[in-house]
Amino acid sequence: MKPIHPLRRWLFENQETLAVFAARLSTSQGFISDWLTGKKLPSGDMMGRVAIATKNAVTPNDFVTFKQTFDKPARKRRAS
After folding, report:
1. Which residues of 5-42 are buried (b: 16+ CB within 10 A; e: fewer)?
2. Taking the CA atoms of the chain, what radius of gyration do you get in angstroms?
3. How far apart are CA 51 and CA 7, in angstroms?
4. Each residue's pLDDT tens digit, 15-53
5. Which of 45, 38, 46 minimizes the C-alpha distance to 64?
6. Which of 27, 38, 49, 66 would give a disulfide with 70, using CB separation of 3.0 to 4.6 Å?
7. pTM exceeding the 0.85 threshold for the entire prediction
8. What CATH number belongs to 6-70?
9. What DSSP assignment string belongs to 21-72?
10. Minimal CA–CA distance to 5: which of 30, 41, 29?
11. Whole-angstrom Cα distance, residue 35 to residue 30?
């Protein structure tokens, strides 16, 4: 099961589209999509803007912690 990014959860719970949220932050939907999939991290300034926009429901730490789940190397299985 794939982890769900805290921002994606916030968008769902607040019934806000990616397009509306991107416009509020003056950025692109594609850029935010990269955050939600763990491909990229937003800048420190942008993380702060997300925290303000979500009233601290999504913090900079959420981005770093989520990204780390994708950066961990896969566990090797032993041959049987």
Report:
1. bbbbebbeeeeeebeebbeeeebeeeebeebbebeeeb
2. 14
3. 10
4. 999 999 999 999 999 999 999 988 889 999 999 999 999
5. 38
6. 38
7. no
8. 1.10.260
9. HHHHHTS-HHHHHHHHTTS----HHHHHHHHHHTTTSS-HHHHHHHHHHHHS
10. 41
11. 9
Q: How many residues does the chain have?
A: 80
Tokens linked to 24: 């509020």
Quick check: 18 and 32 in contact, CB under 8 A?
A: yes
Look at the block and give the residue holding tokens 């099961």. Answer: 1
Burial letters 61-74, b for 16+ CB under 10 A, else e: ebbeebbeeeeeee
How many Å apart are CA 14 and CA 56, to the nearest integer?
Answer: 14
Cα 62 vs. chain centroid, distance in angstroms?
7
Please state, as a whole number, how many other Cβ atoms lie within 10 Å of the Cβ of residue 47.
19
